[in-house]
Amino acid sequence: MNVKTLLGERLQAALAQAGAAGAPPIVGPATRPEFGDYQANGALAAAKRLSTSPWELAQRVVDGADLTGIAARCEVTGPGFISLTIADEYLAQTLRGGRLDPVGGGSRVVIDYSHPNLAKEMQVHHLRSTIIGDAMARVLEALGYDVVRQNHVGDWGTNFGRLVAHLNDTGEDSEALGDLERFYTEASERFANDPAFAERARQVVVDLQGGDPQTLIRWQRYIDISMSHCQAVYDRLGVGLRPEHVRGESAYNDDLDGIAADLEAKGLVTESDGALCAFLDEFKGKDGKVVPIIVRKSDGGYVYHSTDLAAVRHRTGTLKAARVLYIVDARQSLHFRQLFALAERASYAAGASLEHHPFGMMLGADGRPFKTRAGGGTRLLDLLDEATERARRLVQTKNPALEADEVDRVAHAVGIGAVKYADLSKSRTGDYVFDWDAMMSFEGNTAPYLQYAYARIQSLFQRGRVEAGSLTGTPTIREPVEHALALQLVRFQETLEQVAATVMPHHLCTYLYDLAAAFMRFYETCPVLDSDARDDRLLLCRHTADTLSRGLGLLGIETVERM
RNA sequence: GCGCCCGUAGCUCAACUGGACAGAGCAUCGGCCUUCUAAGCCGGCGGUUGAAGGUUCGAGUCCUUCCGGGCGCGCCA
């Protein structure tokens, strides 16, 4: 149950009765404790339009609103705010322990995320797209949307010309592929310094796009090895991407001639310097000249505009998406604005909502692009190694009593969780500072704080010899800290709907942090096991544990029983 | 030059999209462990939200102009 939506409906009806039909109630959490749990600000704006007193209108809304059984208090405060306090009984009945209403109704959402470049191993800059996309996929699925994951891997184009050319020279069974990074570097150096090699590399691109069998075999060999590296990273990270979600640039190769012909037939492209381009007036660059969308290069090859157009058509046409979310870094903003505009004019959007959700760069503590400790490189695997290692040292310091295999599990959950949470907890629009010391201090708004809250509850259950699953019923709420905890628990649904709408997972992080903090306050104030209210409080603990676990799970973060 | 994003406490970040007195954590200072995990809880200190105008009953949020930073702007993706 989304309490915010429910309050909104009831207050909107009351506004209409009071003469302000259609006025939005504008319900949100109360900004201060003395204003209750929720507040509605709609009467202020509505009164302005009706030229009546805001206070009087708000009072009529309060008098007319049907909030029986929901609100314990509903009153006008200040110039015309409506302050609402939810009834304890209602909160208690609404507790769902992390279960969600399927508001998505099976609507299909395609999410394009991770999309590593297979020319080399995954780099740290692939982290953001991968984990934001993974979190969004999980959240939308949990809300009842029909999610289709699309890993639009970079497995095509000029990079692969030089790689396959180098593979041709070193031999099909090259041991060198064991070290993709070095192989890539060697190929790049030869391309830059050896004109004859560069010419062969360009020919390979033509052969690839033309479907030459021998070239495709070598290309496939390279792709397979690179993709297995990616899968290892996904497994290590615990993201839900699997081979069946891969639909790379190469998958659209056969569509490209058709796209070009179709755009020509629709009169959307013209030839310019030998290339086939679309010129959309709203996109201007240097010297005020229109920035072209290059559909086909002068050498007849295709670049990513065309591939992405084919992907749009696939997602809206074949997959029948209602929404397509592109979790791609902010530098691609112009590209996507151009892409969506051209797709619209070519009627490829098919009524679907095409959305680019950009994110900023990962910076080091020095404010420059982040590098790992291992050789100052940017391999994502090195970053994950370091995270787990740092977590292991910390876990051993904090709790020396843990068994060796338990240390492994906790170090993994905490290390990977800390990295993910540090990223997901920030609003994605800007750059963010990746600071090992801050995230590994494990204080404040971090994954380990949340994991710790969960472990404390599990410890309660163990100590009290309580089977969590046997805790059922509706608790009685007595204390203010219990009310605050129950209120926060009930806000799970509205928080996730907000995440789904904004594609901003950090709202879920903030929510979980507030939930854990509410629990910690409850835990400090209210004895559980040795209390007359034991059963009621155990129930609150169970709902908290379930919600923390579910919420962290939606972020792709594991919980542990002990830490 | 044009376009997009950003600028909030010493540091890292919020602020539910225009609502009440801008909130957390870190750092710093001070309290709380012979009872459920102190990776915790409670409190103090810390702000002209880059600047100046404007719209509004109300602006960190919207508009204009500056200042400062990042990114992008024709055959890579």
Q: What count of helical segments does DSSP give?
A: 20
Strand content: 5-15%
Shape: globular
Head-to-tail CA distance between termini? 33 Å
Rg, alpha carbons: 28 Å
Can you walk me through this structure?
This protein has helices at 3-17, 42-50, 54-64, 88-94, 127-142, 158-170, 180-193, 195-210, 213-237, 256-265, 304-318, 333-345, 380-398, 404-424, 436-440, 447-463, 480-490, 492-502, 506-525, 534-554, and strands at residues 27-29, 38-40, 71-77, 81-86, 108-112, 146-150, 270-272, 275-278, 293-296, 323-326, 353-356, 362-363, 432-433. With 563 residues, it is an alpha/beta fold. Among the domains are: 3-86, 2-Layer Sandwich (Gyrase A, domain 2); 157-242, no CATH class. The strands form four sheets. The protein has a four-stranded antiparallel beta sheet with strand order 1-2-4-3. It has a four-stranded parallel beta sheet with strand order 6-5-10-11, sandwiched between helices. A three-stranded antiparallel beta sheet has the order 7-8-9. The structure holds one RNA strand of 77 nucleotides.
